[in-house]
């Protein structure tokens, strides 16, 4: 919504500048007030069109999910914090550190390259993303579901909790 309002404002401004409108120009003060009110809506704004409306935590989780599904280790590992921690819920630490996650994931992707992860439901709250996922073996069609909780710090995935 915020993007649409800004696009309308830019269009109006361009039309006024080109003389396409016979109405008087919008005074600078009113324009600034309108931009301020739009900013107060505090909606995600991404004029690139790549991830309109998705929060940074959601973008990070989606990037790693797509990397996993495509067997692309670089895209999978990129959103993770250097000091990432992977747990089996509630507190069983499996690994710590991006380098260890890289080695673990490389082995897992080699063994599981015939798997696909589908996000059934995603909940985003502040710096936490909770996914309900369906993992399907492309080899034999077996399915399992799990809940994965991602905690974000410094715009990177810092903690991952898996509930199987």
TrEMBL record:
<feature type="domain" description="SnoaL-like">
    <location>
        <begin position="63"/>
        <end position="159"/>
    </location>
</feature>
<dbReference type="Pfam" id="PF12680">
    <property type="entry name" value="SnoaL_2"/>
</dbReference>
<feature type="signal peptide">
    <location>
        <begin position="1"/>
        <end position="17"/>
    </location>
</feature>
<dbReference type="InterPro" id="IPR032710">
    <property type="entry name" value="NTF2-like_dom_sf"/>
</dbReference>
<protein>
    <recommendedName>
        <fullName>SnoaL-like domain-containing protein</fullName>
    </recommendedName>
</protein>
<dbReference type="InterPro" id="IPR037401">
    <property type="entry name" value="SnoaL-like"/>
</dbReference>
<keyword id="KW-0732">Signal</keyword>
């Amino acid at each position: 919504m915020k993007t649409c309002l800004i696009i309308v404002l830019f269009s109006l401004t361009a039309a006024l500048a080109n003389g396409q409108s016979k109405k008087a120009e919008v005074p600078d003060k009113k324009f600034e007030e309108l931009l301020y009110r739009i900013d107060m809506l505090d909606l995600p704004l991404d004029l690139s069109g790549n991830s309109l409306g998705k929060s940074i935590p959601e973008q990070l989780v989606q990037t790693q999910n797509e990397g996993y599904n495509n067997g692309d280790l670089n895209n999978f590992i990129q959103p993770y914090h250097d000091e990432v921690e992977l747990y089996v819920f509630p507190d069983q630490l499996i690994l710590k550190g991006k380098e260890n996650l890289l080695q673990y994931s490389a082995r897992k992707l080699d063994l599981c390259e015939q798997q696909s992860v589908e996000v059934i439901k995603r909940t985003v709250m502040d710096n936490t993303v909770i996914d309900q996922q369906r993992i399907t073996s492309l080899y034999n069609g077996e399915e399992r579901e799990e809940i994965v909780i991602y905690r974000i710090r410094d715009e990177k995935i810092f903690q991952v909790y898996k509930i199987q």
